[in-house]
Fold:
Amino acid sequence: MVEGLRFSLRKYVVLTLLAVAGVIFTLFSIQSADSFLDGMDGMLRNSMLRAARSVDVEPGAPTQVLDFHIASTYADIPETIKQSFSETEIAPYKLYKDIDKPSIFSRPRSANFLVMVPGEERRKMFVSQRFEAPPEDGNKSFRIGPQLHSILVGVAALGAFAVALFLLLRSVSRPVESLQQWAAGLDEAQLDAPIPNFRYKELNALAGIIHMSLQRVRQTLEREREFVNHASHELRTPIAVVRSSIELLCRVVDVENSKGRNAVSRIDNASKTMADLTETLLWLGREDTAGLPETEVDVADMVKGLTADLKYLLQGKSVTLSLHLSPCYLILPETATQIVIGNIIRNAFQHTYQGKVDIQLHNDQLVVTNCEDGALADSRCATKTRDGEEGFGIGLKLIEKLSRKLNWGYQPAFSENGYSVTLHIRSFTPLKA
Structure:
């Protein structure tokens, strides 16, 4: 089917069957009308042959048998018949007719018929007949002829077929529409309800397949959620041990041992990232956000603090950091806000190697832009444009999910200057299912 002409299955079946039925009824109507006329012509021809054989006509002395005019020569045929048929085209035993009929919806005004019957000793007999329409009585100006009668019968049959087809499709389409509405309304709460009866066993089997597939998806999601929760909870203990051990190492490592302190610093930074990611996954795996504690948050101060905590990601890099923060106080879940903003800033710091990072806070809108300089920017921007997301991995996906869960506006964008993330921070309102 041509792209753009998209029919529903119901319309496609109806139009196809109506088209096929229309063609069939049209052909049968034409055949019926032709068969009727052929039968009438055959009866008239046989009657004219019997009339010719029942008399003996001499040249110049034509005779009349019933309504048939019988002559032994063409010259003796009535003039009205001669005007319709030429002598040179007349073949033996063939019925010739000339009907004067203005249209298919009107009766003939006149009709001429002629048959030539060969006789003994090369004699010929011409049997002709002419019909004249009776004068109109003024009451019946419209008459139904055999052709029109066949057409009307075909149209009536097609109409009856269309009605039967409509009733049949309605009895089939209603269960299909019910199945569609049931499948569209399936959610986690309704998966435990029994499957409705959709009348036909094929539809019931399809409903069972849909129900089973969604149950498997739910089980998979539950397993993934449980895995994230369990893994995150189990990671808390070793991360806490690592953090406490790092604090102890920071006290015992010699100040002059720069290599040792650098190694401890790297372990400390990695443990902070692991702790933040663990808290993010734990919070993201919660069933709802209605129970999160809300407090008045100084967003500008939080951005400053997170920027300072994550500056270690810029160590050893030629990156310029600029902050433009205006005062912003909102009622927010503090931990969730720290997770989202921290992930955005961390991604900007991690994926800028030579250039600048610009963090702006105006009213309730946070914009974080990181831009590479020189050839490094060209190569990295080309990679980002080609792959859609280069090196950002789980970070951006977490930010997107967290923002959606908090009902915040989140808009990442690539540009010639680099990569920017715009976050519209709204006072916390739980999303409704």
